[in-house]
Design goal:
The protein has 69 residues and is mainly α. 80% of the residues lie in helices and 0% in strands. The chain starts with a helix and ends with a helix.
């Protein structure tokens, strides 16, 4: 991830991967009621990387505006 976009994009991509993976994991637990289901983390890393590559500036501006800066 860092080789493709640099440290800032890799950090945001990793953060987004954690967020998306958590949402999907909570969905699997709450709706599907499957506790022993294994979920691969690689697709979430790819989603986070692509989202941060294409939408880095809008995401950072939104997060900074949300924090009151």
């Amino acid at each position: 991830m860092g080789f493709v976009g640099g440290a800032k994009i890799a950090g945001l991509g990793l953060f987004l991967a954690y967020i998306v993976g958590s949402v999907v994991g909570l969905y699997v637990l709450a709706v599907l009621r499957k506790r022993n289901m294994a979920i691969a983390f690689g697709p979430f890393l790819a989603i986070g990387l692509y989202a941060s590559l294409f939408f880095y500036d809008p995401i950072v501006k939104t997060v900074l505006n949300f924090g009151g800066r």
